[in-house]
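PROTEIN DESIGN WORKSHEET
SECTION A - STRUCTURE
LENGTH: 175
TOKENS:
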């Protein structure tokens, strides 16, 4: 085997300086051509992409800040609404208590008035009954006196007269 093949088999890279120089020269020429023609467009595209990404980040940050502000406003309004609800419930409880007290007082007043009215009616009925009793008693006494005056009474007549008077008095009580 020739020495070149042995060298190539034992080493990974063949140090050929001429080929390496030409490869480097071609690379530099292509890099310069690309720099003059395509590199500016690539840089403009990258710059535009970077600006768009920065704008998207700024917009996202702005949206986050706006969302946080909206959340704070919502929380504040929710807190106000809760306070209003508590105030309304407290007022309703106070009003209900006042109404209940008013109803109790009115009911007690009505009971007192009914009691006074019933007492007056009872007193009037009592007076009417006593008046009737007095009238009946007076009529009975007059009737007894008439009977006594018409005749002279002996012991049997007196008993009979008392007995009749008691029966008339019982009849009057039943009516």
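SECTION B - SEQUENCE
RESIDUE ASSIGNMENT:
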């Amino acid at each position: 085997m020739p020495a070149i093949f042995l060298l190539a088999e034992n080493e990974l890279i063949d140090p050929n300086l001429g080929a390496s120089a030409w490869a480097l020269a071609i690379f530099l020429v292509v890099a310069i051509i690309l720099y003059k023609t395509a590199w500016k467009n690539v840089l403009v595209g990258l710059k535009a992409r970077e600006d768009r990404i920065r704008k998207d980040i700024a917009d996202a940050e702005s949206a986050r800040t706006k969302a946080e502000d909206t959340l704070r406003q919502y929380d504040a309004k929710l807190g106000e609404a809760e306070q209003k609800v508590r105030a309304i419930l407290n007022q309703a409880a106070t009003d209900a208590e006042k109404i209940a007290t008013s109803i109790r007082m009115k009911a007690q007043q009505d009971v007192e008035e009914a009691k006074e009215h019933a007492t007056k009616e009872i007193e009037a009925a009592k007076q009417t009954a006593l008046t009737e009793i007095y009238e009946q008693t007076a009529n009975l006494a007059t009737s007894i006196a008439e009977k006594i005056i018409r005749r002279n009474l002996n012991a049997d007549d007196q008993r009979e007269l008392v007995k009749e008077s008691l029966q008339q008095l019982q009849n009057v009580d039943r009516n």
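SECTION C - NOTES
The two ends are 164 Å apart (CA to CA).
Residues 1-8 have pLDDT under 50 and may be disordered.
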